[in-house]
Design a protein that fits this description.
The protein is α/β, with parallel strands linked by helices. The chain has ten helices and ten strands. It has a domain at 1-78 and 211-274: 3-Layer(aba) Sandwich (Rossmann fold). Helices cover 32% and strands 22% of the residues.
Length: 274
């Protein structure tokens, strides 16, 4: 149960955006994909998430290629994602947003069954992301930080087996969560809350296999102190793969991305104080 990215490449006309990117990600790992603007992070993430098709290479999850699968089929295989700008159904209540995601693999004409079959699971997810008190609120009225947590809960909802008669991942099967800049637009305290929640998903809980989490991020306080590993892209090439401490000491990363005077401990303190 591993994400295996092998030889990933993507070009736009004559511009090679990503070249021969390869790495693995295991359940229980929280891995950040970082790099300067124009490094190829968004393109790499989009190829892994199925938004773009790579021109070379493969994306394999749990032994099967997932490059060209649509969103419902990815959910059935235990793969979900979020977006840089929170994507929620503004005209539905917070609870209904989760109920809707739970039945997507069955078909949108099953909405009448939502209250009967999915409400307890949806309420449990709202508790998990600290939104239980907002269940009856229209999503459009949520503060942005709460919308980000709702979108995360929606991604998790799409992976739930809520008894709809559709083949889904079993509780002990690994699941993959892909997050596109989850902390974008959040204040420091909101980033800390959200990223602590994200990292908690990689821990074993109530007999479930821990999730594998891959996320892109520009806010370094959402990387260092959170991620177990960091992948650094520059000019479309993966130049470093290691623990945050190792990445912070890497000469090339410091020279071209973090800055020569960048200090990990000082940065973490600034993030907590902001």
């Amino acid at each position: 149960m591993t994400l295996v990215v092998s030889g990933l490449a993507r070009h736009f006309g004559g511009v090679q955006a990503v070249r021969d990117v390869s790495f693995t990600l295991h359940p229980g790992e929280c891995v950040a994909l970082i790099g300067p603007n124009g490094a190829g992070k968004s393109t790499t993430f989009a190829c892994i998430a199925g938004q773009l098709q790579p021109h070379a290479g493969s994306v394999v999850w749990n032994g099967a290629r997932i490059n060209a699968l649509d969103a419902p089929e990815r959910m059935r295989r235990g793969v979900a994602r979020t977006f840089q700008v929170a994507q929620v159904f503004e005209a539905l209540t917070v609870l209904q947003n989760l109920q809707l995601l739970m039945q997507i693999p069955r078909g949108l004409n099953a909405y009448d069954d939502l209250d009967r079959c999915a409400k307890p699971l949806a309420q449990a997810l709202l508790e998990q992301v600290d939104l239980a008190a907002w269940g009856s609120t229209l999503a459009r009225h949520l503060p942005y930080g709460a919308k980000k947590r709702l979108e995360l809960a929606m991604a998790l909802a799409g992976l739930q087996d809520c008894g709809l008669g559709v083949p889904r991942q079993r509780p002990h099967d690994a699941q993959l969560l892909l997050l596109d800049e989850p902390a974008a637009g959040l204040a420091a305290s909101e980033r800390q809350t959200l990223m602590a929640l994200v990292h908690s998903l990689t821990r074993r809980d109530r007999g479930r296999t821990p999730m594998a989490v891959l996320y892109t991020e520009h806010n370094m306080d959402a990387v260092f102190g959170v991620a177990d590993r960091a992948l650094v892209l520059m000019d479309g090439v993966l130049v470093a793969d290691g623990t945050p401490d190792a990445i912070a000491r890497d000469p090339q990363v410091r020279e071209r991305y973090l800055g020569r005077g960048w200090n990990l401990q000082e940065h973490l303190m600034e993030g907590r104080d902001a």
